[in-house]
Amino acid sequence: MLWVKKMNYILFDGPFRNALLPFTYTRPVADIRVGILTIREKWEMVLGSTTTTITEDYLVSKFPMVEMEENTLINASYTPNEDLVEMIQNLKPNQVIYDGEVIVAFRATETQSEIDFDTFEPLFCPKSTISVKNAWSIFQLNGAAIEADFQLITKDRNSEPIPKKTIAFNSAQIFIEEGAKLPYCILNATNGPIYIGKDSEIMEGSMIRGPFALCEHSTLKMGSKIYGPTTIGPHSKVGGEVNNSVLFGYSNKAHDGFLGNSVIGEWCNLGADTNTSNLKNNYAEVRLWNYDSENFAKTGLQFCGLMMGDHSKCGINTMFNTGTVVGVSANVFGSGFPRNFIPSFSWGGHSGLTTYLPSKAFEVAKVVMQRRGEEFTEHDTAILTKVFELSEAYRRS
Description:
By secondary structure, the protein is of the alpha/beta class. Helices cover 17% and strands 28% of the residues. 47% of the residues are buried.
């Protein structure tokens, strides 16, 4: 019998990792959700193989890398499409795919501890490839990513039937997984597909316009108003009005209030009647905190709301100004608009910020995760402790 050696695929963070903070404080680039799936899930589906990661040293204990005799390494900022996948699967040793000067993928051996790409044969990335290169591109590219994931997930599969008392437009672009409940709601897939994940629930009176993804075990509360392109990740609860936003998973915006052109990490909670501004009163270009320059930088966007890192929370009636960045494990509350940049492990709001001690933040994280049947592990403790250290300078400024 002829044995064919299976290729080992490794996703590496690449040069855009800092531009994707605060979300990459607590995960590799590969585990960012854009569309229905995370970037890692997309690659593993199209390659038919598990992947590991090259990432920051403090994340390695939770996200280890496995290296074999021969390896294909893929820049995790790039999402798969048919042309790129074919190029990557056909890579020969010492070939590299470029997007301009950025390395997209290459094939190398375990013995190549130092790689001189000048000796590699250059190939060039298909122009149709979607790449996630900064925090706001997560919501900006979400529509195209939902379209691509919808085709990938639903190919050669049949949807569960749309309930008789659910109103549906363009039902061919609606896919419902097993166990989903959606009585007396309106699904409009005219402008893009709608994906309803396994064991999820859309409560009565909800109105949804695609592109939209509700991932497994998540809930839309009664009377929700959702404008696409929006993704609600797994094990989340969402209510009120949402427009062009991505919630990674295990997060709640369970009450009325507006969330627009925003990205929310995991284990976040937005209190009742929290509202985000996504458009400046003078319609000017939005500036967003840049972790590299340690200043606010132009985005080229007119619409941009809230970027909130993992484990952050806000109290009832919180108002976030246009283009606000909240780091990891922050607790925001009080009247008035808080600052447009709230560092990780901050406590407070418009009236001022103090340090949110890790020991207190970890107590909350343990309780929150236990409620969803998840464990706050030693790996999580080590990662968040490192984030506290990395963000100390921002809390002093």
